[in-house]
Amino acid sequence: MKKETTSKPKELRLLGIPAIQQWIAISVIVLITFLLYWPAHRFAFLNWDDDVYITTSSLIQNIDKQGITDIFSSFSNSNYHPLTTLAYALIYKFFGLDSTAYHLLNIVLHLFNVLLVYFLLKRFSTTGFLALFGAAVFAWHPMHIESVAWVSETKDLLYTGLLLLSLLAYLRYREAKGASLAWYIITLLIYLLSCLSKSAAAIFPAFLILIDWYQQRPWKKVWFDKIPFALLALATAVTAVLSQQADQSINMAGDFPWPARLLFAAYGIWYYALNFVFPIRLSALHYFPDPSQPLPAIYYVAGLATAGLIAFILLRLRKRSPAGRPRTYYLGMGLYVAALLMVLQLIPIGRAVVAERYTYLSYLGLIFIAGNWLEPWFRRVDIRKQASARALQALTLVFLGCLLLISQFRIPVWKDSITLFDDVIRKYPDRGYAYLARGNTWLNMKEADKALADYGRAIAREPELGQAYFRRATLLMALGRYQEAIPDAEKAVELLPDNPEAWHNRGTLKYMGKLYPESLTDFRQATELAPSFTEAWKNTALAAYRSGDMEEAMQALNSAIQADDQFAEAWYYRGIFKLESGDTTIGCQDLLHAAQLGNEKAREKAAAVCPSPDLTHDAR
To answer: Which has the closest alpha carbon to 269: 304, 297, 316?
Structure first.
């Protein structure tokens, strides 16, 4: 007689991931990622921050003791990220301005970060699925292209990698027994390096608190060992604010009241979340809505949806403390929002309401949610759920394939400035800034007519875009079309009252029109705004001289020489004015010094009026 057995539902093992297969899988993911981004190593520098951070930056040109001191004591383009600048300086020392080296750095950093994401998520997964799924999404997501293909976003890659490394070190510290203090110090030091790479690292203490909450660590311990991290975060945040104020960063959101900014934050939360699943209409620039028009309805919808979600979460948390899978989802949401907190336009920075690069770290939270939700369907599944499991597996693979395909077509957009701004213009044809940026690129390529055309298009779409008037006025002056430049120079001063070059342009045009007292006023304003603006000091001297004020003329030339003692024209004109006032000795000394600096007019004048001029030695 057969022994009776209790019947159990049959199970189907849809996917098993032994250790060796995990290593093969992550290797394949890294290889595909490398091949995906390899074309980017041939991309050019962009006329969008790359010029400020690299091609025209004096900070990266010296890596001696003084150069390193300057790097760590200076702001760069409204940011403080000395470790990133130091990385640029090292590349510059060995490769100069070869864009390939800078792009390769970004590609290598991204591959490194993919591995870090894998190892971090593996700490939260028993099957390996979460780690592999997370690494693939992180590696291939089109929203991350901006951070990898744009040289200026090395800071994004570097700070994220160091932050992930610090998280791994923190988990080791939590698990360690005898050497826990060593791991704590290592965590703190790596975090310091992350803060020196980008100020967005200030969110790290929130990450640590969320992980401690998720792992149900006693609250007394949670707060105590976060104090040093919180102090570092506070110092980083304060430095970030100071850097923005010091460089007078563009704050488009300043045109909107606080209720609107709250709606922008809500919109950002939903925009990034929806694009995690449906990455469409990608663009290097997503403009703020027009401040002169009512806010579009989508922002109010996002605000209501966010309020509803917050109310739902608070009600659930009030009933009981989450456990199991809900706790996992709350951790993912917390990581997602914490990573976005500094870039949700509550504190206005830049001219974009959302930016794709802000997802580079924040998507870790959404990956955590999606991976944990999918993971049970990739383990042993009841035979009765076999069809659903296979469908979800197929959809997951299709999703990953779509990410790869979209990224493959999206990456070439970042090839150069023209392809990039062409793409922005296709997405936002009625906004002006991309036309201005493309015009600047045409100008750098010596295509003056195309530059003028784009400046005109920018002004037609945004009549209050001061930089477009300024750029067009400057170009028209360079082309000798002075009368055409006058209205643009006037408008530039009106819209950009803190721009010393705008005042200098208008002053130059007035000087050419022989309106010397009026031009003197503009030159004075330019030097007040920029005390090291030597050309403005020189022109202040000429306008003062033409207005009959020799004393101010001499003071202006002295200020020009004090700002830059290699400025030959200042020495030349001071020599001329000294000769004119009867001081032949000092006048000839200044002329001879100007000649030594390469000024041909000074050489000719000295040869004509100075007794036995010796042009081979400094006459001062």
So the answer is: 304
The SS3 assignment for 116 reads: helix
Q: Which of 110, 113, 66, 63 is nearest to 88 (CA)?
A: 63
Question: Quick one: which H or E segment has residue 11?
Answer: strand 11-13
The full DSSP string for 119-168 is HHHHTT-SSSHHHHHHHHHHHH-GGGHHHHH-GGGHHHHHHHHHHHHHHH
Measured torsion, CA atoms of residues 260, 263, 264, 265, in degrees rounded to the nearest 10: 130
Dist. CA 23–CA 385, nearest whole Å = 29
* Residue 286 φ/ψ, nearest 5 degrees: -120, 105
Q: Quick one: tokens of 402? A: 């779509």
Alpha carbons 66 and 59: distance in angstroms, whole number: 10
pLDDT mean for each 10 residues of the chain (620 residues): 38 54 92 97 94 90 87 84 94 94 97 97 86 96 97 96 96 80 93 94 93 83 84 90 64 70 93 95 92 89 93 79 75 94 79 92 95 80 68 91 96 96 96 95 95 96 93 94 93 94 93 91 94 93 92 92 92 90 87 89 86 54
Rg of the chain over all Cα atoms, to the nearest angstrom: 30
CA 409 to chain centre: 23
pLDDT at 613: 57
Query: Could you tell me if 102 and 154 are in contact, meaning their C-beta atoms sit under 8 angstroms apart?
Result: yes
Report phi then psi at 33, rounded to 5: -65, -40
pLDDT score recorded for residue 206: 93
Report the pLDDT value the prediction gives residue 73, as an integer from 0 to 100: 86
| Amino acid 4: pLDDT | 38
DSSP at 13: E
Cα→Cα distances 432→249, 443, 460, 488, 503, Å: 19, 17, 8, 16, 23
Helices and strands counted in the chain (H then E):
29, 4
Residues 357, 611: Cα–Cα separation, whole Å: 66
In the chain, domain spans: 14-414, 571-620
Task: Count CB atoms within 10 A of the CB of residue 413.
Answer: 20
- Strand-pair partners of 162: none
- CB-based contacts of 255: which residues, under 8 Å, 6+ apart? 288, 291
Structure tokens at 335: 């990581």
pLDDT at position 290: 83
CA distance 589 to 584: 8
State the pLDDT at residue 382: 56
Q: Which residue has the tokens 């959404």?
A: 366
Q: Are 581 and 550 within 8 A, CB to CB?
A: yes
Distance CA 522, CA 503 (A): 5
- Alpha-carbon gap, residue 614 to 382, rounded angstroms: 98
CA dist 78 to 52, 350, 410, 594, Å? 11, 10, 28, 36
Which among 434, 455, 463 is positioned nearest to 292, based on CA atoms?
463
Cβ density class 83-115: b for 16+ within 10 Å, e for less = bbbbbbbebbeeeeeebebbbbbbbebbbbbbb
| Other Cβ atoms closer than 10 A to 317 | 12
Q: pTM for this one?
A: 0.88
Distance CA 221, CA 170 (A): 14
Q: Letter for the amino acid at 88?
A: Y
Q: Quick check: helix, strand or coil at residue 367?
A: helix
How far apart CA 129 and CA 114 sit, in angstroms, is 15
Structure-token pair, residue 482 = 């002075």
